[in-house]
Amino acid sequence: MNLAAVILAAGQGTRMKTQVPKVLHPVAGKPMVCYALETVAALGVSQTVLVIGHGAAQVRAAVSNCQPAIANLQFAEQREQRGTGHAVLQARDALHGKSEAVLVTYGDMPLVRAETLGKLVERHASSRATITLLTLVADDSMAFGRIVRDADNRVTGIVEEADATPEQLAIRELNCGIYCFDAAWLWERLAHLQPTGAKHEYYLTDLIGIAAREHRAIETIVTRDATEMLGINTRVHLAQAEKIMRARINTALMLAGVTLTDPATTYIEADVMIGADTVIEPNTHLRGKTRIGANCRIGPNAIIRDSQIGDDCVVLASDIAESVIAAGVRIGPFARLRAGTHLASQVYIGNFSEVKNSFVGEGTHIGHFSYIGDAELGARVNIGAGTITCNYDGTRKHRTRIGDDVFIGSDTMLIAPVTIGARARTGAGAVVNKDLPPNSLAVGVPARVVRQLKH
Ligand code: UD1
Ligand code: CA
């Protein structure tokens, strides 16, 4: 069955009280509309149309960054929000005559699982119904439309909460807003839909009553997992979705061999990857495109964003962003690694050290209270406590180069641009404003070479 998808995302999201289009608010680090697009893409749809309206330009731009990228995606603009039926109609030009079936879902339901949509699509394909809809049986109505059935249990229509009689309000079977339609029937009937109901809008749900009156086959797939059907209308819903998504991510990681000492206080975003036998301690935040190897110990209190960390690393109470860290590296507590940091294997970064835009060679130690910025450090360098690369002259940034096996004495100021030759040493408190040759010992302010060292 050739299936196309329409995702509705034009609504304003008034109750979010936001300047940002509702569907761009992130859940576990990812705009919620990306979940909807991904889930639909997982079904192997031939084409997807995202119906946008409020903040259309922003939504278009953000969607192009969804990971993984969404194939065969088109946008349809709904300039005025005149109801769900009117919204789907905006996709007609893009999809009419292009598919046998059309799946409709929303951009503000990030918790819907691909398996659930898969079941709906399968049922639709096997039953050849005109409409197959996903219904939820739950005690809390969440203000969803009610599924009305006749004495033979056949669906006769959907009634919106605002239009329902007291008897209809008591119905526990709810409309999730997710449907499969026979494409030819949908596009034909949608064009003739009239505004109805309390809001005088074009209700997509009216198509169910129309199909019933035409004696068309209407199938349902019933779910009982209300959490999956949570639509985000307020920031309270957003926080609920965040919590549920976080629990899903954590559970999947644990089942894949990652220890989470306390999942309730472990915050891992959707696209993070972690190797087996790594232990994540409490209050750790792993964000963006972070990848962590096997056998690491991360946290407590680590914040890592868009970074790669090799196997067998230890990161304790540190902040790391846009950095690449090889295997066997120890970091923290209280280190800060900023963008462009690259640590080779077996490096040690101790407390209160900041590294930015620098390469640090294998086995080098930066133990205490240092700033290393715009620098290249060789292997087995020892950076004494309080060492600073003075990389900024007030106008420009300059580089510091330190060769292999250099020993930088405590409180050395390295005034960049400056190069320290291999195996050189500086005395405590040296202010180095000229290059030092290999094997030299330099001391003082400004530092001068006092001796050549034998090695
Ligand atoms: C809709 C259903 C209701 C169902 C509920 C599930 C209708 C008439 N009612 O109600 O039966 O229980 O969803 O959540 O369909 N949208 C547009 N353009 C519009 C109107 C809406 O893009 O003109 C989008 C919204 O951004 C949202 C989705 O469609 O993502 C649903 O719209 P919403 O107004 O929340 O529908 P409900 O009234 O909740
Ligand atoms: Ca809604």
Write a concise keyword list for the protein shown above:
455 residues; alpha/beta; Spore Coat Polysaccharide Biosynthesis Protein SpsA, Chain A; UDP N-Acetylglucosamine Acyltransferase, domain 1; 2 domains; 17-stranded mixed β-sheet; 9-stranded parallel β-sheet; elongated; binds uridine-diphosphate-N-acetylglucosamine; binds calcium ion
User: What is the architecture of the largest domain at the second tier of CATH?
Assistant: Alpha-Beta Complex
Detail the poorly predicted runs.
none
Helix content: 10-25%
CATH class of the largest domain: Alpha Beta
Average residue-wise pLDDT:
97
Please summarize the sheet with the most strands. 17 strands, mixed
Strand content bin = 25-35%
Number of domains: 2
By DSSP, the count of extended strands is: 40
Shape by Cα distribution: elongated
Number of helices: 9
Cofactors and ligands present? Answer: uridine-diphosphate-N-acetylglucosamine, calcium ion
CATH superfamily of the largest domain: Spore Coat Polysaccharide Biosynthesis Protein SpsA, Chain A
Class computed from helices, strands and strand pairing: alpha/beta
Per CATH, what is the topology of the largest domain?
A: Spore Coat Polysaccharide Biosynthesis Protein SpsA, Chain A
